[in-house]
Design a protein that fits this description.
There is one protein chain. The chain is mainly beta. It contains no helices and 10 strands. The protein has strands at residues 5-7, 26-30, 49-53, 61-65, 78-86, 91-99, 106-112, 120-126, 132-140, 149-156. Strand 6 and strand 7 (106-112) form a beta hairpin.
Length: 160
């Protein structure tokens, strides 16, 4: 609903992902960009925008970091819903949790390439007794044409 903070990437503004347009490796583009799949956003719209990993990536992973969220409690669960596209086995998308007191990122969800080229949707629930950030990481093992990792429509519930 409207109570969720939504990042649909149609503009460069996204309160919950303040630096997404500065992150190396992720590109805001649409299906007409000539960069290979996906050729539309998760609604099938060729001109609507999403984020995808750059095919020119010289490094193996690219991260997307949220702003800092307050601790969750039973009444205010932080739910994050997002659409994702991962093609081919050498591609992985991970979602991690970083508590501000810790240096390490705890992996809370990941998917590796399925050979079906299609958008999928997932919702994850985050529990944290302290302030935290959520990190989306796309990883590439080998460079091949026509392979892609993409994210669209990330929505954050009020508990985030």
């Amino acid at each position: 609903g409207s109570s969720w903070n939504n990042c649909d990437f149609e503009t460069n503004l996204c309160k919950v992902l303040p630096e997404f347009n500065l992150q190396p490796g992720w590109i805001r583009r649409n299906g007409r960009s000539g960069m290979g799949p996906p050729y539309s956003d998760h609604n099938g719209n060729e001109s609507a925008y999403f984020l995808s990993l750059s095919s020119e990536m010289q490094f193996s992973s690219a991260t997307l970091r949220t702003s800092v969220f307050l601790p969750t409690d039973e009444e205010h669960l932080c739910q994050i819903r997002f659409h994702y596209w991962v093609s081919q086995m050498s591609r992985t998308l991970m979602v991690g949790l970083q508590k501000l007191s810790e240096d390490t990122v705890t992996n809370i969800w990941q998917v590796s390439g399925e050979l079906r080229n299609q958008w999928n949707v997932n919702t994850i629930t985050v529990n944290s007794t302290e302030k935290f950030e959520v990190i989306f990481s796309g990883m590439v093992e080998t460079q091949r044409q026509g392979e892609s990792v993409a994210i669209d429509d990330i929505t954050f519930s009020e508990g985030c």
